[in-house]
Amino acid sequence: MAGTVSAVAADWSGARTGEQRALWLAEWDPDRTAVVAVSGRTRVQAGDRILDLAADAPELVAGLDFSFSLPAWWLARNGIATAAELWADSTRLERWLAECRPPFWGRPGRSRPRPPAGDEWRLTERAAPLRPASTFQIGGAGAVGTASLRGMATLDRLRRAGMCVWPFERWATPAVVEVWPRLGMGRTVKSSPAARAAAVEAMGERLAPDVAAAARGSVDAFDAVVALLDLVRRTDQARPATTDPVVALEGWIDGVALDGGALSPWRR
């Protein structure tokens, strides 16, 4: 593969084993102005690849498709002062998944709490143009919680290796940001092969031929490619610092505007 990769995006997986069947990592070559690779990876392999790319390209921006944190009220209830503290305790994260006690839900016999113990969504999810799933949902259709809680170990690893995880740290590259593919695909019905094929056709020469074939054939590869193309629109922009203590705990989806706050430059 020629050129330097300046951006990557991953559609993540929380599967205990065989996660490479659902976790796809897409890579952008600015010289070719195209997505030049997309491939299935384990969580460890994805972290390895991102760190290797960051070593070659200090301007690298990596977008990962999972929630980087949980609502601030839940962190406070558990005595967690920072997101980094949350990411570092994999034992606690796995216990939350195994027990699936409220506010977590979605496993057999664990229905959605009514009323919820607190707001299910972070500020960024309430600000998004479409409402993402709750990170507290760890089972069932559309669940994102398991991928998020198991993805936090990768955030811990990338941060310890020297990558900036925004917005928890002041912006610097190489950096890691939270992405949500739906921002780049609007209301495309990605489960429809015909809809995916039409969307891939519209992407044209921005996809290498083998990337286009993978995106047509796999929902997860399609998500990774769409998230990357959306991320690439912002890779040359420094993200603003936040003075909002809730955002500093909960994180933020890259590309979502926060009206009236420190992140107001992200108005779309």
Task: Please list the strands of the largest sheet in the order they lie side by side.
Answer: 3-2-1-4-6-5
- Reading the helices and strands in chain order gives EEEHEHHHHHEEHHHHH
Oligomer: single chain
Tell me the number of helical segments per DSSP (H or I, 4 or more residues long).
Answer: 11
> How many β-strands, per DSSP?
6
Tell me the major beta sheet: 6 strands, mixed
Uncertain stretches of 5 or more adjacent residues = 260-268
- Overall pLDDT: 92
Strand content: 5-15%
Shape annotation: globular
Structural class: alpha/beta
Helix content: 25-40%
Defining key terms:
6 strands, alpha/beta, disordered C terminus, 38% helix
Describe the structure in your own words.
There is one protein chain. By secondary structure, this protein is α/β, with parallel strands linked by helices. It contains eleven helices and six strands. It has helices spanning 43-56, 72-77, 83-88, 90-99, 123-127, 145-160, 182-185, 193-203, 209-217, 219-232, 245-250, and strands at 7-11, 24-29, 34-40, 61-65, 164-165, 175-178. A six-stranded mixed β-sheet has the order 3-2-1-4-6-5.
